[in-house]
């Protein structure tokens, strides 16, 4: 198969969909890989490294779309790319269709085959191509929180791990899923006093089994959250209710009881945020202060660490990309239900219920293409 990797052109996106190592794997399996010049620069991969791995470099984005049967990307195509996409071309990338109607309509119109990273789903309902970015964001949440607790950055001037003779900082984590677990590991490793809250008792049991002694678990409810945030130095928001807006677990009035210079990192901000006063910020301007509490609410945290994020993402996407390239999308999706669930728009039909419902569009079963 001919695979094309365009350079990401969305604002501030430095990741790339394939590493030189990935290009080499695809090449080994007999495929041809075209990479747009400088596509890997933002993540630290040079054109020379791609060439050495067996890929060919094309000078511009139009030539990549023109030649490729499968396009591998990170972010959804933006307006200037719509007209470059060809009928029957397979696009393997994040789409988040339900949040943007013009993108959905454009992909219906161009009759491409859109396989979305975010809806590839395992039998246990986990989302293998979202997990790596949650892992990055969870670990980064503690790094950022520790940073903003420093006095010159507006924090109360407390070191997360304390020192001998001085107590460590108190970290409260709302939600014990992927983000919350990774955040707990990092905060615990730095010596903080960590409490993690979740609604799921089995999840709390699991966390209680695997976490070190400086991580405690607590059932998530308003009473417990109100009690804990009075003493907290850093609060990390990491809840998710699939397919819904995050619930506001910390409301505006609750900020009043928090310590001056404490820090809130709301990782769930991309789903509306679980802290009422959080609104999305950017890496250029990541924080704001309300009631003397520092708020960090960057909606694309992994974007700040493109090297790690690219490797983490491509570790997860490459095995699927190889199946698609080896078998073609129809056979690959027929044989692997995880991939089949990734199909969202196929040759003009919306084949993912959530997308059809979001815009009141007719839904078609994808089975007619896989028969
Ligand atoms: N800002 C970013 O850059 C960024 C990056 C990656 C992920 N995220 C977001 O982080 C959030 C968490 O993602 P995840 O992968 O950890 O999800 P996850 O599904 O693995 O975990 C969510 C957890 O929240 C728990 N939960 C639900 N309601 C709760 C409540 N009321 N109180 C306490 N816990 C509750 C669930 O039981 C679950 O354990 C999502 O909104 C995701 O989109 C943001």
From TrEMBL:
Protein name per UniProt: Alanine dehydrogenase
Source species taxonomy = Bacteria, Pseudomonadati, Bacteroidota, Cytophagia, Cytophagales
A GO molecular function for this record?
alanine dehydrogenase activity
Organism of origin is Shiella aurantiaca
EC number from the UniProt entry: 1.4.1.1
Please report the stretch or stretches of sequence annotated as the Alanine dehydrogenase/pyridine nucleotide transhydrogenase N-terminal domain.
4-137
Tell me the protein family, please.
Answer: Belongs to the AlaDH/PNT family.
Q: Which gene encodes it?
A: ald
Print the keywords alphabetically.
NAD, Oxidoreductase
Q: Where is the Alanine dehydrogenase/pyridine nucleotide transhydrogenase NAD(H)-binding domain?
A: 149-297
Alphabetical list of Gene3D superfamilies matching this protein? NAD(P)-binding Rossmann-like Domain
Keyword Oxidoreductase: yes or no?
yes
Q: Which reaction equation describes what this protein catalyses? A: L-alanine + NAD(+) + H2O = pyruvate + NH4(+) + NADH + H(+)
């Amino acid at each position: 198969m001919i695979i094309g990797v365009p350079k990401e052109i969305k604002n501030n996106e430095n990741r790339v969909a394939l590493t030189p190592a990935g290009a080499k794997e695809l090449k080994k399996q007999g495929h041809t890989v075209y990479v747009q010049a400088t596509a890997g620069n933002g993540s630290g991969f040079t054109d020379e490294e791609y060439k050495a791995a067996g890929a060919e470099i094309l000078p511009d984005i139009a030539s990549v779309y023109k030649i490729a049967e499968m396009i591998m990307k990170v972010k959804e195509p933006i307006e200037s790319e719509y007209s470059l996409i060809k009928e029957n071309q397979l696009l393997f990338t994040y789409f988040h269709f339900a949040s943007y109607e013009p993108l959905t309509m454009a992909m219906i119109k161009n009759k491409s085959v859109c396989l979305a990273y975010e809806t590839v789903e395992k039998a246990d309902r986990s989302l293998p191509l979202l997990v790596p970015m949650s892992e990055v964001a969870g670990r980064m949440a503690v790094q950022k929180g520790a940073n903003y607790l420093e006095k010159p950055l507006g924090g109360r001037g407390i070191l997360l791990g304390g020192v001998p003779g001085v107590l460590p900082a108190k970290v409260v984590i709302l939600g014990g899923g992927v983000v919350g677990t990774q955040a707990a590991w990092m905060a615990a490793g730095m010596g903080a006093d960590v409490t993690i809250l979740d609604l799921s008792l089995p999840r709390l049991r699991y966390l209680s089994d695997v976490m070190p002694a400086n991580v405690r678990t607590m059932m998530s409810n308003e009473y417990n959250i109100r009690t804990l945030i009075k003493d907290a130095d850093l609060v990390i928001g990491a809840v998710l209710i699939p397919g819904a807006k995050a619930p506001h677990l910390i409301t505006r009035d609750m900020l009043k009881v928090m310590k001056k210079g404490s820090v809130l990192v709301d990782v769930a901000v991309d789903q509306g945020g679980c802290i009422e006063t959080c609104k999305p910020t950017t890496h250029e301007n990541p924080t704001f202060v309300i009631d003397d509490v520092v708020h960090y609410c960057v909606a694309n945290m992994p974007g700040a660490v493109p090297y790690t994020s690219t490797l983490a993402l491509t570790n997860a996407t490459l095995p699927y990309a190889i199946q698609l390239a080896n078998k073609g999308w129809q056979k690959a999706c027929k044989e692997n239900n995880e991939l089949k669930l990734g199909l969202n728009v196929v040759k003009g039909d919306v084949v993912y219920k959530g997308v059809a419902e979001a815009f009141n569009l007719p839904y078609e079963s994808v089975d007619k293409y896989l028969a």
